[in-house]
Amino acid sequence: MRAILLLILAYPFLEVASLVYMADHFGGGFVLGWVVVSALIGVLMLRNQKVGALLTLGAVLRKPGEVSLYGLLWPLRFLLAGVLFLIPGFISDVLAVLLLLPLKGPSLKVPPAGGFGGAGGQSGPAGDGAIEGEYTRVDETVDPDRRLHK
């Protein structure tokens, strides 16, 4: 827990140190241009977030049979990448680019659109919605002296 807290507290200092290092290495004009361009990219990403999330969700749900967990989380990753692009610094830009990589994660099995029972939502042989099976009733005998009320 302390390591996470120290990392959160050290993050702004690491961003400033990376900006100073890059300015010393490449020049101040390049770093200023980089920060402005990355902020514009972040603003554009956040501006188009709502429509993109709806389109992504619609495309993921149209695929029959399997849905990728990373596909469902894509709008959230895209939003977080836009926020990271808005933060001035090279570390946040690298993290944003890593979030935007098209990773294909594990897929989740999804039942068919007709329902859980099979093709067209038919559960039984006649398609009446009945679930066939066997059962046995088991009643435990209770001693009358152990009852709470009489």
UniProtKB/TrEMBL annotation:
InterPro entries: FxsA
Keywords: Membrane, Transmembrane, Transmembrane helix
Biased composition (Gly residues): 116-127
Location of region: Disordered: 116-150
Biased composition (Basic and acidic residues): 134-150
Keyword Membrane tagged: yes
Top-level taxonomic group: Bacteria
Cellular compartments per GO CC: membrane
Spans traversing the lipid bilayer: 28-46, 79-101
Any Pfam family: FxsA
NCBIfam families: PRK11463.1-2
Protein name: FxsA family protein
Organism, as annotated: Crenobacter intestini
The organism's taxonomic lineage, starting at the top: Bacteria, Pseudomonadati, Pseudomonadota, Betaproteobacteria, Neisseriales
